[in-house]
């Protein structure tokens, strides 16, 4: 059996796998857990990040307004299902006013490293790049330098230093809805200067795994296991009806995480349900956060549905690693 390296999280959200379920990931029966009008002005709440915090959970949520401005908002929950999200977006402070200028902010991730919570998001600075900030309490937020030059999306940190470096995955892009995209790993010693860029993995051409043939991008913070870093990511195919976003998984080397040990040829979650297929952007399942219990191997995954609402799904570390090994991408 595979083992999660980390802490126990006995009170995380959970539902047992339904009898007869054939997929390695199953949905919460009360989805969506966050509707589109969860804040005073929100048009949609999706592609958001959740972490254990205090005696419950905290999160940073993408809440597009009814004027369709994109920003990120703090929120809190006792059970990880019912959320109180602020009507006021995150207010950053920092040393350089140039970096604090707001164009847009979306698709956040949150990663606890050492003594604080780091937030990464797609930050508008003459095009999309990766913004970085930290907080101790989800009340005061200190913004650091943007990690990369535009154009870039999907900045996802690893939850600990690897060797001498902190590391972040990203997906270089263009200014629009990128019709391409591979995942890279970048490294830093100080969270200011990023380099030592390494190619990890890319879209799959041909029919070997067509659901991820247009582009891919990293999803939640990777989960450390005794077999490697468990990465959940999104993959996109271009169809006659536009882009379709599905979810896959891979296993990365613990010491050199740009080296892929396993990768599933089949997706683990796809837009099947009405709330995933119908919305502002149809046919999207977009994973952004997980909760993981080291004692049981259980994983709860938060994902955006049709760029409109937030869903919750469940799996285990054994389910995903077994699935990859039974359906390997060759």
UniProtKB/TrEMBL annotation:
<dbReference type="GO" id="GO:0016787">
    <property type="term" value="F:hydrolase activity"/>
</dbReference>
<dbReference type="InterPro" id="IPR007184">
    <property type="entry name" value="Mannoside_phosphorylase"/>
</dbReference>
<dbReference type="InterPro" id="IPR023296">
    <property type="entry name" value="Glyco_hydro_beta-prop_sf"/>
</dbReference>
<dbReference type="GO" id="GO:0016757">
    <property type="term" value="F:glycosyltransferase activity"/>
</dbReference>
<protein>
    <submittedName>
        <fullName>Glycoside hydrolase family 130 protein</fullName>
    </submittedName>
</protein>
<keyword id="KW-0378">Hydrolase</keyword>
<keyword id="KW-0328">Glycosyltransferase</keyword>
<dbReference type="Pfam" id="PF04041">
    <property type="entry name" value="Glyco_hydro_130"/>
</dbReference>
<comment type="similarity">
    <text>Belongs to the glycosyl hydrolase 130 family.</text>
</comment>
<keyword id="KW-0808">Transferase</keyword>
